[in-house]
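Need P2Y purinoceptor 2's 3D structure for a figure. Predict it.
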Amino acid sequence: MENLMTPPAWTRVTNSSLDPGGTDDNPYKCVFDEDFKYVLLPVSYGIVCVVGLFLNLLALYSFIFRIKTWNASTTYMFNLAISDTLYVVSLPLLVYYYAMGDNWPFSVGLCKIVRFLFYTNLYCSILFLLCISIHRFLGICFPLKSLQWGHVRHARRVSVVVWVVTVVCQSPVLFFVTTSVKGDTITCHDTSSKDLFGQFVIYSSVMLVLLFCIPFLIIIVCYCLMARRLLQPTRGISRLSRSKKKSVKMIIIVLVVFIVCFLPFHVTRTLYYSFRSWDLSCETLNAINLAYKVTRPLASTNSCLDPILYFLAGQRFMKFAGNKMLGKPQNEVALGIVPNSHLGTSSDTDTLSKDLKS
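Structure prediction for P2Y purinoceptor 2:
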């Protein structure tokens, strides 16, 4: 009889991130059991830290020391690697924090910086992937214009704009994010204090539209137009046909990775923020809370997938393509034209653009 009267686990545990202020007067009716995250998050963040740091440092080394002449794609990828590196070096703090059971022994400033780096990397990655996608779109659908707008000096200016826009848009995170003391533990919240939570949700919704929804829609439109152009039958040698097939496969891979890394996080975060004050069952709220906690490290895996997907496949970094590129004419390298590339991404795209012009 006593067991029948025992409430579910998610209504008994007092350690919950549903209370952004960390105070005892929790206005929410459900408090969830989040013990799973003390294993999931340290392990996942630890893996992302080790793998992402290695791959991004390798990519940065290749950029700086092995590739002598850059193109627009190289410029965007280099900035993407910087963003990923800045984020992964902050992950040991989160690994320690979650391994200690949501106990933050560091300063409030470090808490703000760690959360700020997460969101800055998230939206820098999205915007730089958008830049790479537009660059490929111009190369395939408007090859003549790509010669003008795809120049490296324009890519540098665009990269500066991306950094400025992202830092400015994410600077409110430094204001909203805070810590709170509850018993003997200090919680580093990824939202805000309770009295500012409504404003934080509005801010997050605006960022969702501006920095995720709009770029995502543009990427989908660009890739659909690219796929339609690539799938059109054209006269040419068989190498062009192979390049087109590889480019189509690359489009599919990019969309899959984008959807896997970024879409689940934004969907579950929106539901997580929206449903907290709704009159829903504890089972439903617990499922949303679980999904959100799982997709947070999933969003972080873009720091590992970026160098694998774009640096390896696009620029042959694991073979240190810089040595091979040195023997090519400078104008071909500047345009990213590397004939007979067996990996077929940006190099194949630019090769296709060259063929389309002729």
